[in-house]
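Re: the multi-chain job from yesterday

Posting the exact lines I submitted so nobody has to dig through the queue logs.
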Amino acid sequence: MKNAAILVVFLGGLVVGIVVTAVQPRAPQAESPYPALGAVPEPPVAAALAAAVETGDAGVLATNLDEEGVRGLRRAIGQVPIIEEVRFSGTAALGDSVLVGYLVIGQDAQGPSISGFTVTVDPSGKVVAIR
Amino acid sequence: MARLGRIRSIGVPLVTTFVAGALIGVLVVSSFGQALSSISVLTGPQESESARNLMVGFMSGDPRARGYVISHSGQDSPRWALFETTNAVGSRTLELKIVELSNLALSAETLTHLGAGTAGPYGTDLYLVQLRDDKGDLVYQPFTVYTAEGRVVDVR
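And the result, structure tokens for all chains:
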């Protein structure tokens, strides 16, 4: 019982040490002199597309993408042969359109691999570009 | 008095154990910070400093940054397509074209960081840039900046 309590206290200290060190404020990065576009909610069509990339759902991809879109997607994610996760990273409002960023995380022959792609969604909710 | 002594006999070793654990935790993060930085729960997705420097240099017309971005990104807007066609001509032409394109009157409008992620030592930062070309048209271009151990290794 005593040993277990000591172990718990030790592990508690270990976790606190790791967290406090990891989340301590870093030196602030230089402010960009250029303004950033505002963020908007992730369009559902882009979210569905990202989910389809993650699960390899060719039906959804074929429904939402034309030939150029498929080519763009292939270029963007080609370096991650084994996709483990497609993570939403952010949006930018481009007038009435929305540009959405996704990170593709997985493995290649050498180990961990990561790439990214952007989806442009027009005001009608249609995917018009993938890069 | 006896009670106080008992609290001390239990409390002091526990505090010592806790502090020892915390110190080891600090040492672990200091030693393996790079690997731990990929745990986004701990650190959050952070913008790579080198990626930001490159993109700010690109926006401000720094010839090296602009040349690097243009030569690495096989983008399909007219500007980058122009560059792509010269890519196969030869290195000297390539260099001249980089200088030519670097001097284009592209005025920087916005630079938006869309997010970042890491996998092991590799990182990816997504950006959207807006530039106004010499005809006054606003063009936008997304860029993916790849880093390895914090250094930019590619842009697409």
